[in-house]
Amino acid sequence: MLADSPQTETVGEKAYRRIRTDIIFGRLSPGQRLKLEALKDAYGTSISTLRELLNRLAAEGLIVAEGLRGFEVPPVSGPNLREIAALRQLLECHALEQSFAAGDMEWEGRVVAAHHKLSSMEKRMGDGTGDSEVWKQYDWQFHQALISACGSPVLMETHGGVFDKYLRYQMLALSNRGEIAIREHRLLLDCALKRDAKTACEVLSTHIDGGVEHALASGSI
User: Fold this and answer.
1) Which domains does the chain have, with CATH numbers?
2) Helix residue ranges per DSSP H, 148-178
3) What DSSP element (H or E) covers 33?
4) N or C: which end of the chain has fewer CB within 10 A?
5) Is the dihedral of CA 159, 161, 166, 171 positive or negative?
């Protein structure tokens, strides 16, 4: 999941997070062969450690391990995006229902704060002064805040992994739906404060489906 790097991370963990982030944000391109010698220099770690990290990422579905042929960044396709989006919707809606039922004032504060950051960055994206990576980081934080009271670390972790795969497609397509997405995020905030899980799931479904269609319409996938 996309998050700030702890100060106590090892060199290997830092390399893992950097490679993972570079895949999600498209700096490592779909179908790109990952040559260990080049990666060793770029990420400042040993080849043996790199193999361990790439196998770990392969287990997460963010790398394709090809046996003796090495490693490759997974390709992208419309059907794969739709499958990832459907899984995200299923997990997130389930988590929303639990989170809305259990959320307290501290949870409300997290949701409001996360929405404020996202809304501010969305406006900057609209006038051309925003940073796309920071924008999507705030998008991730808002959706994570919404489900953060669900009470299940496993559900949160699973959702985070699926969200990152969905985010990879959004970054590759540079998918920004402007005022439509801003309005949907505001509706999700309103639903959270009212504890209206039913409407929130309906808004979320429209939000995710709209993101998929917008990304596919860009022609870059």
Assistant:
1) 11-72 (1.10.10.10), 78-217 (1.20.120.530)
2) 153-173
3) strand 33-34
4) N
5) positive
Radius of gyration for the chain, computed over Cα atoms and rounded to the nearest angstrom: 18
Are 64 and 74 a contacting pair, CB within 8 Å? yes
Provide mean pLDDT across the span 144-155.
97
- Alpha-carbon distance of 125 to 34, in angstroms, equals 32
CA dist 61 and 153 (Å) reads 20
DSSP 36-73: HHHHHHHHT--HHHHHHHHHHHHHTTSSEE-GGG-EEP
Say whether pLDDT at 175 is over 80. Answer: no
How many residues does this entry show for the chain?
Answer: 221
CA-based nearest residue to 195, from 68, 75, 89, 104: 104
In the numeric block, the tokens 């970054």 are attached to 171
With vertex at residue 216, the alpha carbon angle to CA 215 and CA 220, rounded to the nearest 5 degrees, is: 85
